[in-house]
Amino acid sequence: MKACGEVKALQEAKTVHEHLIGSFSPLKISIYNRILETYLKCGSTDDAFDVFEKMPRRNLTSWDTMITGLARNGLGEDALDLFSQFKQAGLKPDAKMFLGVFYSCGVVGDINEGMLHFSLMSSDYGIVPSMEHYVGVVDMLGSTGNLDEALEFIEKMPFEASADVWETLMNLCRTHGHLELGDRCAELVKQLDPSRLNEQSKAGLIPLKESDLKKNEKKKLASQSPLEVRSRVNEYRAGDTSHPANDRIYALLRRLKEHMKEAGYVPETRFVLHDIDQESKEEALLAHSERLALANGLLTSPARGQIRIIKNLRVCGDCHAAFKIMSKIVGREIIMRDAKRFHHFSEGLCSCRDFW
């Protein structure tokens, strides 16, 4: 099950689940929790809900897994409802559960409720916030666009903020186009942990020279997007032109771009860091790994079928906007798991509500 979850192989996960049910009775609660985690990692919240409801017993890990997993799939309201049910049952949350609660509040855009839970975790439950909790709150504030509030929150922390805190805010500044504050955060990350230079450069906030990279680190910076088609996982890299269907893939992307422009799409070329002309920047956006994966998925998967993509980095703002429009144009549901969360694109909308 763990392997299925890592590569988001939903059909294989269902097969393993059926085998476990048929071979072992009753299942241990730890196995149920692994099944829950796998379905949520695969983006199948319906299957996760079904397993959760049928579990003969649940422990704290069961609730933790569901709350965080639902939020990462864009179902923040369901996650918060589940947290309310948990408390109404007289159960006591642990420190880990509050991380899922903060994430859920960020998904629904309710920072007031999130800050209330941050206060209650110590006053009502005696949990002292750790650095990880502060990272979670900064992520909640920043993902909803409240970057100044996130900075103020950091400045009021009772101890020095870690590189994780500043890197979280730095990445959110990149997402929301607040590059001046992002540069300040990047410098602080560099001071606290110089080894994170590559991660900062990957976010586009500090220029990266070839000489700054070790040979074994170069692969880490490449944007990759595996695509699941008929239970096979295919991998794509940004700018790759080696795929056997390369000509068809790029031709489809160019046709889609024209349809998108007719629908009001304007390429956000600020996400292309190279010093090239506008037309070349638009062409570079087409070569992002998730777009290559999507195009081949459209060419090789059944009509109207769901397309699943995994991205090893956070999706850029332009691809996010493009995927929303493309989901409506092609009439497909597109599920993408990036480094931050799940994005369910359908009918021109994303489950993240543009908070990521």
TrEMBL record:
* Example of a GO biological process term: RNA modification
Q: What InterPro entries does the entry give?
A: DYW_dom (IPR032867), PPR_At4g14850-like_plant (IPR046960), PPR_rpt (IPR002885), TPR-like_helical_dom_sf (IPR011990)
Keyword tags: Repeat
* Entry GO MF terms: RNA binding; zinc ion binding
UniProt keyword Repeat present: yes
Origin, by domain of life? Eukaryota
Q: Which residue intervals correspond to the PPR repeats?
A: 28-58, 59-93
One of the Pfam families matching this protein, by short name: PPR
Segments forming domain DYW: 264-356
Q: Which PANTHER family match?
A: DYW DOMAIN-CONTAINING PROTEIN (PTHR47926:SF388), PENTATRICOPEPTIDE REPEAT-CONTAINING PROTEIN (PTHR47926)
Q: By what name is this protein known?
A: DYW domain-containing protein
What taxonomic ancestry is recorded?
A: Eukaryota, Viridiplantae, Streptophyta, Embryophyta, Tracheophyta
